[in-house]
Amino acid sequence: MRHAYSVDRVRAAERALMARVPEGALMRRAAAGLAVVCGDLLRRNGRVYGSRVLLLVGSGDNGGDTLYAGAALARRGAGVRAVLTAPDKAHPGGRAALLAAGGRVTGALGDIGTVDLVVDGITGIGGRGGLRPDAERLVREATAGRAPVLAVDLPSGVEADTGQVLGPAVRADATVTFGTYKPGLLIDPAAEHAGALHLVDIGLGPELPERPDLEALQYADVAALLPVPSGESDKYRRGVVGVAAGSERYPGAAVLAVAGALHGGAGAVRYAGPGADAVIARFPETLVHPGRPSEAGRVQAWVVGPGLGDSSASATAVADVLASDVPVLVDADGLRLMDADAVRARTAPTVLTPHAGEAAALLGAARAEVEAGRLGAVRELAARYRATVLLKGSTTLVAQDGDAPVRVNPTGTSWLATAGSGDVLSGLTGSLLAAGLDPRDAASVGAYLHGLAARRSSDGAPVAARDVAEAIPAAWRDVYA
Ligand SMILES: NC(=O)C1=CN([C@@H]2O[C@H](COP(=O)(O)OP(=O)(O)OC[C@H]3O[C@@H](n4cnc5c(N)ncnc54)[C@H](OP(=O)(O)O)[C@@H]3O)[C@@H](O)[C@H]2O)[C@@H](O)CC1
Ligand SMILES: [K+]
């Protein structure tokens, strides 16, 4: 599991640790780790000795880390030049160390044509509100060449706590972060600025609270959560997932949701609605019922919403499913048709799976607002609807009403922005719910497998939703291996 902590909690942990270690030790550890990654990057295209490194140095400790790392590189024979955004405020110890190691400190950028590496140490967790105009100009000019850009702790200009990007910000090829990930490194749009992530251990771990603000499942976490049938399982014990999706106008949504559901670990899929013929033609293993969900037979979880359209029968299907006493996943048209009070009144879990546009409608906000502030939006939705909310997007987030950490999905791919892929995710996640996963696990495991399936079936080319569904077993095997 990858964990991320908010700035306040990082600072509190830092204070506790500082009280136990010699002065300056943390910055030395951070700088040493940073210098190692700088060295690795330089060696990729040559060597450290004789290379040219440009440091962009702000007025806080982020600049201090950068200056000390620059000193280490200068001692190894690199030509290191630091441009200070505020010469009178730059970290005095770091500045002295760089000069003593033979590095140079300048106010002007000079020639960047020969630079091999740009290190961004303008702001870290102390930065607010996008880069200021002077810093922005410096970054624009310094990163115009071909040299890779390495950000220190965070790309300067992004919001550490929310993943928002409120103004101009550094676009890095890689980021070296200290002690723990920060939410902004894992959530778009900020995460897109960070590039490859390197975490440097500075001994902060024992000082951090047990519960992070954000967590990202890794292979092993997902493998441990996958529902695997025991020797005594039969199809009913493995769980039956009900799918209420599709309409005369959109029968394909029913087929795709069922395709996802068939691969999610439930023992059987029951389909209720007007797409029964289309479903059975494609998937004869499905139990179909052409009428309302409440008359379709017993299930352990329902998926409702994909392709329902706007008919009165669709509204009935949503109300029917919400009145059941099993976990329910509501997606797409279901999110529009559902009665908010009925959702809040449910005693069994509810999972809502909006994309940014649907989330905006549920919150009464603009879509752009949701996209810019995804973490706040998903938390707000979970609290307002007393539900588990999976907010789809380039970094899919899962939040639960209460104080559990928000989960961020690391397997997304932009190829998933394709018609019908959400229907597959709904079916898959509903199937995991029926198999007995708790709603937060079902949603985050569903998103993980779905992203992996898309990557596998895409392999760099466009994919159709059907391909994603078909690749779920391969993704499952990947995780399990
Ligand atoms: N926590 C830890 O465990 C450890 C932390 N460590 C390191 O310390 C870093 C945090 O250092 P920090 O607190 O000094 O803040 P930092 O990010 O350098 O920036 C603050 C300065 O930037 C300025 N500034 C602000 N906004 C700006 C903007 N938009 N555009 C331009 N400038 C802006 C603002 O200046 P002022 O307002 O004074 O003009 C302010 O003084 C952390 O990220 C990590 O690298 C490690 O050494 C080891 C352990
Ligand atoms: K930085």
From TrEMBL:
Signal peptide: none annotated. It holds the Pfam family YjeF_N. Its EC number is 4.2.1.136, 5.1.99.6. Keywords: ATP-binding, Isomerase, Lyase, Metal-binding, Multifunctional enzyme, NAD, NADP, Nucleotide-binding, Potassium. It comes from the Bacteria. K(+) binds at N62, D120, S156. Residues 218-479 form the YjeF C-terminal domain. Its cofactor is K(+); Mg(2+). (6S)-NADPHX binds at residues 61-65, 124-130, 153, 253, 307, 355, 423. Binds 1 potassium ion per subunit. It catalyses: (6S)-NADHX + ADP = AMP + phosphate + NADH + H(+); (6R)-NADHX = (6S)-NADHX; (6R)-NADPHX = (6S)-NADPHX; (6S)-NADPHX + ADP = AMP + phosphate + NADPH + H(+). Residues 10-210 form the YjeF N-terminal domain. AMP binds at K392, G393, S394, T395, T396, G422. PROSITE patterns: YJEF_C_3, YJEF_N. The keyword Repeat does not apply. Catalyzes the epimerization of the S- and R-forms of NAD(P)HX, a damaged form of NAD(P)H that is a result of enzymatic or heat-dependent hydration. This is a prerequisite for the S-specific NAD(P)H-hydrate dehydratase to allow the repair of both epimers of NAD(P)HX. Homotetramer. NCBIfam families: yjeF_cterm (TIGR00196), yjeF_nterm (TIGR00197). In the N-terminal section; belongs to the NnrE/AIBP family. Belongs to the NnrE/AIBP family. This is Bifunctional NAD(P)H-hydrate repair enzyme. The gene is nnrE.
